[in-house]
């Protein structure tokens, strides 16, 4: 069975929902010196803020946060993505490293509640309105 065919039962409801993941690039906005990363990257700061904010998020058990080494959007850092089987995948960039976690989790909640994953521009929190890098179709 492939990951695309796996579904989970949400502990917070009686509905069957597809597995969701919030990907966060931890390499974004890194400073490099002699081929090595120096200090904490912007992506690491954003990841930490999202993880801390998610501790009280109603979907923390249904929408895991997964750190990613690189999402290849370096010129548009910091980057996150929402993905789920049977839904569009969204990639957002140009996100601030501070005071953005609540907006990301709010948008993830909207994504979670939509059967197709569609996130209309007008319904996205402000930091995610202009930061859209890709809307990837579902596999058929």
From TrEMBL:
Highest taxon above the source species: Bacteria
Protein name as it appears in the record: DUF1636 family protein
Native source species: Okeanomitos corallinicola TIOX110
SUPFAM superfamilies: Thioredoxin-like
């Amino acid at each position: 069975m492939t990951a695309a065919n796996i579904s989970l039962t949400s502990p917070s409801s009686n509905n069957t929902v597809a597995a969701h993941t919030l990907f966060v690039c931890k390499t974004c906005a890194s400073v490099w010196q002699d081929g090595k990363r120096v200090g904490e990257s912007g992506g690491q700061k954003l990841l930490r803020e999202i993880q801390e904010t998610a501790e009280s998020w109603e979907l923390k058990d249904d929408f895991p946060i997964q750190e990613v080494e690189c999402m290849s959007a370096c010129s548009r850092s910091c980057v996150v993505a929402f993905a789920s089987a049977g839904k569009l995948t969204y990639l957002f960039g140009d996100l601030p490293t501070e005071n953005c976690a609540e907006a990301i989790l709010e948008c993830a909640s909207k994504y979670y509640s939509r059967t197709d994953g569609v996130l209309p521009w007008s319904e996205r929190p402000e930091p995610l309105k202009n930061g859209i890098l890709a809307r990837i179709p579902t596999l058929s």
